[in-house]
TrEMBL record:
Signal peptide start-end: none
Membrane spanning stretches: none
UniProt cross-references to SMART domains, sorted A to Z: BON
The keyword NADP belongs to this UniProt entry's keyword annotation: no
Domain BON residue range list: 4-72, 79-147, 150-218
Keywords: Aminotransferase, Signal, Transferase
An MF annotation (GO) of this entry: transaminase activity
Record's protein name: Ornithine aminotransferase
Record keyword Signal present: yes
PROSITE patterns: BON
Coiled coil: none
Length: 218
């Protein structure tokens, strides 16, 4: 009886795990109509050949497409699972990121973040942290900000935060709120002041969106 592709994939993976000359952690196995595709990385050429031999030993393998690359120990580690581990480790060390509530997926160097946080800045910090990892080609941020009860005095809180900023003239900025959405308007003297106003609005509890219509008047 001919093996199914899923059975064949399972057997090839098991044989790679059994082969002592092969570190199977970085090797991927795909099967299509009995044709086995080996991909990923190994540390030496003998290991690459050993992986191919192991796959050929499995009954039911009709052909092998061998796409394994040899990567020396001195070369940067850019396999997807290695990138994912570094991102997760970086999150664990960053007190601003609630790492237990976030999920990380890496596919061909692209990192996708998902989960829920309480504050917008936590989502942004996770995005920036993931983008700093070597080998990352891009970050898709699907993290959502948790819907929290919006304080009745949210406008006053934002205005108070504006007034605490030494470089921001709070009298020139207006704040309007609707649910968790904040709309900023008015004029400031520099782009840095506009950024400070937006950061202060995002930092308020319960804010889920900020519409920044502030004009920079040089």
């Amino acid at each position: 009886m001919r093996k199914t592709d899923s059975q064949l994939q399972h057997d090839v993976i098991a044989e790679l795990e059994w082969e002592p000359r092969v570190d199977h952690a970085d090797i991927g196995v795909a099967v299509n109509d009995g044709v086995v595709t080996l991909s990923g990385y190994v540390k030496t050429y003998p290991e690459k050949f050993a992986a191919e031999e192991a796959a050929r030993r499995v009954a039911g393998v009709r052909a092998i497409a061998e796409e394994i690359k040899v990567r020396l120990a001195s070369e940067p580690k850019t396999a997807d699972h290695e990138i994912a581990k570094r991102v997760v480790d970086l999150f664990a060390w960053n007190v601003s990121i609630p790492d237990k509530r976030l999920s990380v997926k890496v596919e061909r160097g692209w990192v996708t973040l998902s989960g829920t946080v309480d504050k917008h800045y936590q989502s942004e910090e996770a995005r920036r942290a993931a983008g700093r990892v070597s080998g990352v080609l891009g970050v898709v941020n699907l993290i959502t900000v948790k819907q929290l009860p919006v304080p009745a005095d949210i406008k006053d809180r934002i205005m108070a935060a504006f007034k605490r900023q030494a470089n921001l003239d709070a009298t020139t900025v207006s704040v309007a709120t609707e649910g968790g959405k904040v709309k900023l308007s008015g004029k400031v003297r520099a782009w840095s002041e506009r950024g400070l106003a937006e950061q202060a609005a995002w930092a308020a509890p319960g804010v889920t969106a900020v519409q920044d219509d502030i004009v920079v008047a040089f």
